[in-house]
Amino acid sequence: MHASTLFASFATAALVSLANAHGIVSKIEVAGQTFESPLIGASGDNGPFYVPTDNSPITDVTSENMFCGSVATAATSTPSIDLSQGNTISFYWESGYSTSNWPHNTGPIFLYMAKCDSDCTSQTASSTNFIKIEQQGFVNGAWAQAALNTGSPVTFTIPSDLASGNYLIRHEIINLASTDENFPACSQFAITGGSNTYSSAQTAQFPGAYSATDAGLADAGSAIYSVKTNAEYTFPGPDPVLSSDGSDSSASGSSSDSNSASSSSSTVASISSSAGATATVATGATSSSSTATGVVVLPSSVRLASASVTLATTTSSVSVSAVTTPAAATGSSSSSDIDTCATQWTTCNAAYMSATASDNSTTVAYSCQTAYVNCVAQAESAVESSSVATAVTSEVASSSSAADAMATIDTAAATSTPVVNSRAFAKHLRRHHAGVSRLDFH
């Protein structure tokens, strides 16, 4: 193939892959009804969705796009929600260009609502005052956002007594893995069945509700991995509504408990060895302890070798040809170890995005970020003893199969708690976010 043609092919693949790296709201379920959003750029009926121009984040909190995202086409209908028929609302996230799942897992999620003066399509940023219905942070030690990796929705509870009328619903995900990335998504519905105006609740306008210096946003990057519970995180924006807000004090309202979330299902990654054995590793936290770590701990040896990552697009897995022991297991670490983790994360992201771009019908579990965090944790850990590492290395070498090796390493991993070195982690995050990550083809 001619070099220029090959380059053009890679460039096209890179653009598609980068587009698949984020997402939009693809489906809403509420009061027994289901609404599906058209793909980005598609023509036809938008229903209740405000469809964006692309699936990229808003990184400037003063941008007008903080209102409802970079909207390309407004909603074309205003479906009715009878709160007596159900008052939970669930949002599913996909690429917006395909059916690939939401890829990120670090940061809070919100539901805002604003009563429209008449037709919600005429609302502007300066004329719209949102109340925060609910905010979700950690559930069982992991960010609630992580459940979206598996294709699960995020579910909120609309106050059952909310006053009837047309409402603009603003659902938002904030990805804090490297920099503050805001993903606001709007839809419109007509609420029936209630009378409480929640007139005394705090309100917010977008832009304006957030500042780049807000603690919950400024902690983006390495600092966010030191946050492990809702008590340690400062949610940006106003407080969620309480049942005592507004004109109807007898109403049940909605809970302000930021621990609530629709699902805490674990993401499961299938890691296959060249020997054919498969080990299934849960990458979502399942501990019920409120102090459980927010950084999910994988087996200490899970490393994605940059030269051997291949993608099985017919299955929901990323396959690696071998399971290796981190250099940190010898009791030492160096910048080269961290760089190796960085290379592996970049390669894993490229493989993940290539999978979603090449086979839109396949759901590929995303675990690159979690694997990187734990790779760094192992490389920087000062609590691993060399005697244990030597024993593990010897045992792995004599194991008859990759499955036996994984079992051995799992046992050793359970005896130590890795701690991420924030300076080293920040170093790679800056490089990683510069391209997710320039799609380094090896």
List the helices and strands and how they pair.
Elements: H1 3-19, E1 24-30, E2 33-36, E3 51-52, E4 71-73, E5 80-82, E6 88-94, E7 109-115, E8 130-136, E9 138-139, E10 142-143, E11 154-157, E12 165-175, E13 181-192, E14 203-204, H2 215-218, E15 268-272, E16 278-282, E17 310-312, E18 317-319, H3 335-358, H4 368-380, H5 386-398, H6 402-413, H7 422-433
Parallel strand pairs: 5-13
Antiparallel strand pairs: 1-2, 1-6, 3-4, 6-11, 7-8, 7-12, 8-14, 9-10, 12-13, 15-16, 17-18
Helix pairs in contact: 1-3, 3-4, 3-7, 5-6
How would you sum up this structure, described in words?
The chain is an alpha+beta fold. Helix content is 21%, strand content 20%. The protein contains seven helices and 18 strands. The protein has helices at residues 3-19, 215-218, 335-358, 368-380, 386-398, 402-413, 422-433; strands spanning 24-30, 33-36, 51-52, 71-73, 80-82, 88-94, 109-115, 130-136, 138-139, 142-143, 154-157, 165-175, 181-192, 203-204, 268-272, 278-282, 310-312, 317-319. It is globular and about 60 Å long. The two termini are 18 Å apart.
What's a quick, concise take on this entry?
This protein has 442 residues and is of the alpha+beta class. It has seven helices and 18 strands.
